Fold this sequence. Notes:
- This protein is α+β, with helices and mostly antiparallel strands.
- The chain is built from two helices and seven strands; from the N terminus they run βββααββββ.
- The strands form two sheets. Strands 1, 2, 5, 6 and 7 form a five-stranded antiparallel sheet that branches. A two-stranded antiparallel ribbon has the order 3-4.
- It starts with a strand and ends in a 7-residue tail after the last strand.
Amino acid sequence: MAIATPAFSADIYVPKQDAMTCKTLADMRAITKAVKSGDEKTAMEMLDSRCDTTGAGVAVTVEDDMIDREFMLPYVCVRPIDSKGPCQWRIGTRDSLK
């Protein structure tokens, strides 16, 4: 069960570290589940096919964030300022983007 927190359009951050991001929360959760179950091979295959690395130093807006109660992990959905596409999910909190 997840609890979502509404985001505000004024939430702009410039991450200092690269991070893996996935287009859907379902992909991120599937990878997390594979890692937690010890299936690192499947997790790496999923990361390679479903996710990208977002760059440090790129300004992003936070569209949504949540805490996944099943895995006890926070997720945040970000979008580069100049992008018109959908936001992408990454593990972490808003504070992890600072």
